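Email to the structure team, subject: GST N-terminal domain-containing protein model.

Hi all, the expression group asked for a predicted structure before they design truncation constructs. Nothing fancy, just the tokens so they can compare against earlier work. One-line instruction: predict GST N-terminal domain-containing protein, return tokens.
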Amino acid sequence: MITLFDFPTALPGKTLSVYVWKIRLALNIKGLQHQTQWVSFSEIEKELKKAGLPPSKDVPTNNFGTRYTVPALHDPSTNTKISDSKAILKYLDDAYPETLQLTAQPKVDPQLDALVAEAFGPSWPLAFAMILHIYTTQVSKVVSGGLQGEDSAKYRMRMEGMLKTTVEEWMQNKEGLEESLKKGREAFRAADDWLEKSRKIHGGKWALGDTITLADIEIGTVLAFLASVLGEEDKLWNEIIQEWDEGRWGVYWNQIKQYTQVL
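Reply from the structure team: attached below.
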């Protein structure tokens, strides 16, 4: 059975990493049996090294200053140990060709070329904006309640490096929080416009038609991540899925939710 490495939290959805969500969605969509190996956030490098997993980067190029990150995956059926979400997605397609191929660019109408380029680029900037701006309004929830002890201290250090201030000072910045939420709302609206343009060309219930593609992994990750952090009883979450963009995000969530099981 495939083992997916992730770190646990006390958040409603237990899991936090955006990049792990991409792989979890892919595994569930492909119907591949797997289990999660939970490792402490502050001991990711130690535990991955112990398990013989390779680093996800040759040099630390991210804000976290580490080469070892989740997701990491061990597939005993092929004796493969691999890290980094992009590499894992490609591996899953190559190793399991009978499953839905998520990294293959679909054959589409020429009118969709510009839209496909946005969704299948190295990183869909809209998805990043949808997550980042709303997530920054929830940092205190993660640092104060989602993680404990050394895990919380290490995560706090990294988030404060990104925010350029302390978590407490950031959460007291009412104007900054309102601006973040506004930018997040604008990103969701832009993504909804993107989806609407795509639907007018081909129809279908998914981002590029009747079949799930990598674009749906990106969008699904946004919703799964926010649901995990906020919780489905949260006021903001219910505004997003019920009120934003005439409730279309709720429709999309009902479609993708079946693939968000944390096993």
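The chain has two domains: 2-95, 110-259. The chain has a mean pLDDT of 91. Ping us if the truncation boundaries need rechecking.
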